[in-house]
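Problem 12. The chain below contains 394 residues. Write out its predicted structure in token notation.
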Amino acid sequence: MKKYTLLFLLLFFGRWLSAQDTTDLWTKARMNPNLGSHKYIELKLHGGTHLYASDELKNALNDGYKSLELRMGWQSTGEKAWQRVFNYPSYGIGFYTGDIGNPTILGNPSGIYSFFYAPFHRRKKNYFEAGLSLGITYDLNPYDSTTNPLNDAIGSKLDVYFNVGITGVLKVSDSFDFLYGADLTHFSNGRTHTPNLGLNMVGLNLGVRYHYNTIRTIVKKQIDPTYTAPRRPTFINAPIPEQLHYNEISGYAAFGIVQASSDEHLEAFYGTASLILEYNRRISHKSSFGGGLDGFYDGSLGWTYHQLYGQVRPSDKMLMGIHAGYVLHLRDFEVRAQIGTYTWKRDGEKGDYFMRLALRYNIGKYGFVQLGLKTQDGVASDWIEWGGGAKTRF
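Solution.
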């Protein structure tokens, strides 16, 4: 009998201790003002006009464009120093669908992308966000010399989707925000298929954002019916560590593929290459500035010069250049914007200057992969650079 009594007491005491531990853990957990995961669903309506420099599509683009976007975002709290540097940004994934003009010529495009919002000019009820989105758009109706000869803007069914804009955020309630803003959207395939003037759409947008916390319902039903998880985070206002200034040298190699002409008798594709040596100086948590040397190879110049001059030397497909650039640091990612000029080329076929917009992901201290778009004489796509490289700091 004593054995059974002792066993009962041990079991009861164990369950009591377990209950006490669970209660203590929940008591401590609910003291965290950012318990759970703060997310939002965003719906935006866009409208505006096309920035188009040619003549073929003017009638197809006369009515401008209209589009709808659905986004799901994660709101940061400032737990990490980089989040405080960017004033508590949010980021996520989105879906796009739109009417960009005559669907018989242009198609009915949709797209998927990732996005990043960096807030600025924060006030209690209203603030602004600088937004950047990058992804792909599909269901386009590309150029065809027989069935779609007017479409000199789009050469492929699948294009890069790029969007940049400024959004105003007006807090309406604890759950909802009203959104308003202006943005620029760009479609391009980077000359992997021609013609490829691309589409540039600029306009205004209106929308609504709904905030929620993923643990809100679970906690109420299964743990504590008296607890209501906050829909919005309490921003952590801890000091930002000082950023060390340093110098960085990197070497980058990339390749690409381009189509020389959309002529119905020529559907050949050519290889491209980029070799870059670059120096940058880190000056703050967000920014670096620098410059570098560029070496290019464009196989399609062989076809171009054969048409112009009748003969081609191996060196005709090569170019040399220099560039200056800016780097925006986003944790392990870098957004790189550069402008450069050629120091050596055969003639003016490539224009006088080039630009590069690239996204780099750093792998440890010494390596990286990078995806970029090199342009020709402004925003005209030259080719997409796929590559990687190595770096060192001092």
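Discussion. The two ends are 77 Å apart (CA to CA). Students who got a different answer should revisit the alignment rule from Section 12.3.
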